[in-house]
Amino acid sequence: MANILAVDDEQAILIMIQKILNKDGHNVTIVSEPKVVSQLRPESYDLILLDVMMPEIDGFTLCKEIRSYVDCPILFLTAKTEENSLVLGLELGGDDYISKPFGNLELRARVSAHLRREHREHFAKLTFANAYFNLSGKQLIVNEKVVPLTKGEYQICEFLAHHAGQIFSREQVYEGVFGYDGESSDNTISTHIKNIRSKLENMGYFPIKTVWGVGYKWEK
Length: 220
Prior knowledge:
- GO terms for molecular function: phosphorelay response regulator activity; transcription cis-regulatory region binding.
- This is Stage 0 sporulation protein A homolog.
- It comes from Anaeromicropila populeti.
- The chain has seven helices and eleven strands.
- It is α/β, with parallel strands linked by helices.
- The protein has two domains: about 5-120, Response regulator (Rossmann fold); about 125-220, Arc Repressor Mutant, subunit A (Orthogonal Bundle), CATH 1.10.10.10.
């Protein structure tokens, strides 16, 4: 199941898209006013569908505004078939086009194809707004710079990031990272977190939040 955002000024089209993709088990958020998209944390979606011809903000402009922090596939819904328009959308960061009118099978197939490709490309990569984890290389990259983490610090970051938004106590972090037979005490988690924060804050990145009396969480 994927979280999909569909943006179109025609409510009937949005409802149709939602019904079609819901049948494949996807969770579809529909928006008829493009100006509110930035408030919905578009970076949290697995795929975005954007109508090109919309009042106030057209799909190309919206794509350009969000592409700097949105890593998922962006597919344009368009009745425009001129070559210049197609090229412009791709240059602005779009991944593909679905021409209107489209059928159920085409929409489902195109969305599924992009989600499958995205899964393959990001199998060894965990991405956030201005940072990502190179899982195979065991590196955290912030603003295109490698964070100089120790092995333990990296493991803590990856554990929290894999469960972004979920709160863990020090004991749960310790067990999740080092296991029951780990060589360090869960009391050292606080020290690790302090060191991690220092390194990340020096790079202008503040993902680890303390929930007082409970534990820590990695904010998406």
